[in-house]
Write the structure tokens for this entry.
Amino acid sequence: MVMENRNEPNEARMRARRLHPLPLRLMHWLNALAMLMLIGSGWTIYNAQPVVPAIRFPEWLTMGGDPEISFRLNGDGGYGGALQWHFAAMWLLVLNGLAYLGYGIATGRFRRKFFPIRPADVAAEIAKALRFDLGHADITLYNAVQKLLYVGVILVIILQVAAGLALWKPVQFSNLVWLMGGFQGVRMVHFLGMGAIVGFLVIHVLLALIVPRTIAAMVTGGPRIIEKSTAASEAGTIPVATQGQPS
């Protein structure tokens, strides 16, 4: 499908690029790796002292090293190793996340892809989803529910990092501890944030499996699109090729 605007008065203002530029793809997969490490190691840490005793995570889903070796070396079932993995992944997430936020804001990608989010559009997309009537033909555009989920998970991750810092250094970040209702409150916020992120990942992966072209696009860069490079071009992006077009 070709949708070039032949009436564009100044073609020099237009530039073609992949739907997902290389820097964004690298940051996306690094974020995914960091999140998986944080979740697996976090579940080991959680199991050592669960904030909700009725909920525990199976050992095969956790990360922290072999429990028998860890017990022999450290006297615990993987707690020490999980803490080290958790801190390493935290710094990866923070540094990569800052780069991702800076890239998204500086390039205008967040503005073009995620906004505006209108409640009426969200309700309409939810109604379509309930009727199994969601459209997947154009992967260059996000529907209102996708926009809400992406913005929401970014905010949850920021809150999750803040809660993690408060758990790590409760004295130094005592104001954060106070804002979250005390140390147990921080633990609960961190636990609920983990649940929200895991829920997002499950939905994200399921939708990607339903439309496998989105996975390929996050590997290859996806279709080429034309971006208007001036402030007057608020319309955003114009797809000019279908997915799979060679680089």
